[in-house]
Design goal:
Trk_Ktr_HKT_K-transport; potassium transport; Trk system potassium uptake protein TrkA; potassium; RCK_C
Amino acid sequence: MRVAIAGAGAVGRSIAGELLENGHEVLLIDKAPTAISVERVPQAEWLLADACEITSLDEAALQRCNVVIAATGDDKVNLVVSLLAKTEYGVPRVVARVNNPKNEWLFNESWGVDVAVSTPRLMSALVEEAVSVGDLVRLLRFSHGDANLVELTLPEESALAGTQVGDVDWPEDTSLVTIIRGTRVLTPSREDSLEAGDELLFVAAQAREEQLEDLLSVRRDNAAS
């Protein structure tokens, strides 16, 4: 998979390193000469150019990219890059970094964004996840379909502890995608049982989040009554 990353700062380089380790082809784009640090990510392609300019994106051959990541520290730049990638080059997947949470509402399909990653929101979500059991935590917002990646740690008193995944009457428009149990990452099957302390990751419609939280957090005594 070919991935172009606009913004070769610490965030962009870190993403590039992860993708390269997973065998992907990566192009880093930045207009600041000081940001072009080839020695830090030598396996990547580098382009000194303004990612908001069509001529630069032509040079980057953006039409050959499977994914574009707008990872600069400027929300305006990230929106422009996302829009150009989607509308001018037809890039299938556009991921954009949101620096200011007040701008998050802009990062949607109207601006060509498929997935918006808000660093401040993600940090706060991870803090919430670390201290809360039984509360639904929103980790990531997907622009298409109004869906979110959400997490909930199954509490000890949950009525679903010990229940097989296939026996749960899950809300509509929700999908259990991963169970994290200790150091193990499980792809759930219908026969897998839920255990107290499991971290459950769902892709869920925003309108179903409250219903999902109620289902997972219900206490045994309430379920029995």
